[in-house]
Amino acid sequence: MDFTLKKYRELLESLKAKGYEVITFKQYCMGEYSQKIVILRHDVDLLPYNSLKTADIEHSLQIKGSYYFRAIKESWDETVVKEIDALGNEIGYHYESLTTCNGDLEKAYQNFYSNLEKFRKVA
Questions:
Q1: What is the CATH T-level fold of the domain 5-122, as seen in this structure?
Q2: pLDDT along the chain (123 residues), means of 10
Q3: How far apart are CA 65 and CA 107, in angstroms?
Q4: What is the C-alpha separation between 9 and 12, in angstroms, rounded?
Q5: For residue 58, which of 44, 42, 45 has the smallest C-alpha distance?
Q6: What per-residue confidence (pLDDT) applies to 13?
Q7: Structural domain boundaries of the chain?
Q8: Smaller CB count within 10 Å for the chain: N or C?
Q9: Do β-strands 37-39 and 41-44 pair in parallel, antiparallel, or remain unpaired?
């Protein structure tokens, strides 16, 4: 498979040409869509600057996506999060607290809450 940014742009252009409406996850949950839809959900596991390039392509095509960042240094870059948010995209928290806290529910809750507060301050 070709996962280059060039091919990604071509895919988005093709979807638009075929009459698909590209929406965020929130728009879907709110029922704000037509019959032919695509939801762009991006899990930012590593290399957040690559996600910014993806967001720039989407923005140039008047498309918004949903970007979910993990609360780890390989994913979380406050500058990138702010830039992707400023392009009009939806920002979400890709949480994994129960795993990172080894199944300890109390620790996981505290971890989740702490990370969520950090995310809310940025986007």
A1: TIM Barrel (3.20.20)
A2: 91 97 92 89 91 97 95 90 96 91 94 92 87
A3: 31
A4: 5
A5: 42
A6: 98
A7: 5-122
A8: N
A9: unpaired
